[in-house]
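Notes from the pairing session

We agreed to fold both candidates in a single pass and log them together. This is the raw record for the first candidate, unedited. Please don't reformat it; downstream parsing expects exactly this layout.

Candidate A
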Amino acid sequence: MDTAEGLNPGTRALSDGPPAALILAAGKGKRMRSRTPKVLHKVMGRTLLAYVLNAVQYLSPGKVVVVVGHGAEEVERSLGGGRGVEFVVQRELLGSGHAVWMAREALADWRGPVVILCGDMPLVSPQTVLDFLAAHRALGVPLSVLTAEPDDPAAYGRVIRDRSGWLERIVEFRDADEAERAVREVNAGVYAADPVALFGALEAVRPQNAQGEYYLTDVVSVLRSRGALVSAVTGPDPREIQGVNDRADLARCQETLKHRINEAWLRAGVTLHDPYSTYIEPSVRLEPDCVLGPGVVLSGQTRVGEGAVIGPYAVLTDVEVGARARVAPHAVLSGGRLPPGALAGPGPLDGRGGPCIRRVPPQRRAGGRPPRRPRGAS
C-alpha cells in the first residue's frame, strides 16, 4: 500500500460534521454460483445493495462511496448512474482492508466520521446504524466496531476485549485458536472511524494471514499498538449482522425480512389471514382495515386502499386497489387501477376497467330495495 498520513497516539477522533458512508461491494460471491454480482441479488424485490444504501441514508451522509470490483459496470447501472453515489474500483480483490484503501482519495479531505458497511447485509436496520454512529461520536475514539452475540457464532471473526472492556483485536475464524473460537462475541462488519486514523493504520496492515489478504480488522491491533483506544458496540439484534454468501443465506434473509414486514403491517391495522404465506415487498403501501388472504403476493408499487379485500393466492404487481374494492382468489393483476368498490376476477387487469372488473352492487334489504340513507347523513 502507498504511504498515508498517520495518527499520533491518543489523538481524539474527529467527530464533528456529517458522516461519510463507505459501502464495500466488490466481491465476486463465488458461492452464489451466479453470473450476477452478489450485491445485485434480490430479497423481497430489492437488491442486497439497495437495502444497505437505504440504511445509510438515515445518517444524512455528506458523501456515499461504493467500492465496486466484480461486475462493476453492472452494479453502477443498477443505481441509475449513481444518484449521488461516488464509485471507486477495486481491480484486484485483495481483501476488505484493500477495498477500504481504494477509497482513500475519495475521502482524502473528509473530516467527519466514516461509516463502513458491507454491501451484502440487507438486514441491518437504519436505527442500528444511527445508534452505532451516536455511540462512536460519544466515545470519541478513532475507531468503533459493531459487534453481536449470535446463538451460533459460526465462522465470524471473534472480538477480543481487554480487561477494561475496550476492543483489543479481532481474530478471523480461520486464524483463531481454540480459546478464541470459544468467544461468542463476533464482528458484525460495521465500522465507524476517523478517516485520518483509518488510513494511517491501513498503511501498516500486511497480508499475514491464512487468506493472504489485507484484513480491515487488523486496523484494530495497529491502533492499539499506537496507544489509541478502540470501542466495541454491541448491537441489539444479532440477526441483523447476517450477510449473504450463498442461496441458502439469501433465503434465510428473505424469511427474516418477510416476517419483519408482515409484523409491521399487522401492527399498522392490516389483517393478514396467514402471515407466514403472505409476501409483501417493502415498496408496497397498505391502508388500515384492508384484508389479505393466505398466499397473497403484493409487489412493486402496489397500493391497497382502506377496507379492500384481496382474496387468497391473488398476485398483484404495480396495481392500485381502491377503498373497499375486492380481488377474487387466484387473480393475477398487473399495472392497473381497480376503482373503489369494484370487484376484480381472476382475469387480466388492463388499467381501464376491463371485462374482469365490475362494480360491487349496493347491499339490498330483504324487500329488494337498497337501504335508505339515514336522515341528516351527508
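Candidate B (folded immediately after A)
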Amino acid sequence: MPRMSPDDKIMKPYLRKLMRDHRMLNRCIDTTKAIGTGDEIKAMKRLRLALKDKIVALQRHYYGRGLTR
C-alpha cells in the first residue's frame, strides 16, 4: 500500500469537506428558491461558485488535471 504524504493526509480530508459543503449549499439553494429572496440566492450562488473554484484549483494542484473523489 502506498504511503500518504503529509500533504495528502491534510488535503484529502479538506477536499472532501469542501465538496460536502458545496453539495449542502446546492441543496440549500434548491430549497430556498421557492421561499428566499433573490439577493439571498445570489449570495449563496456566489459562495457556491467560490467553493467550486477552490475545489478545482486544489485538485489540479495536488492531483493533476483529473478530478478525484
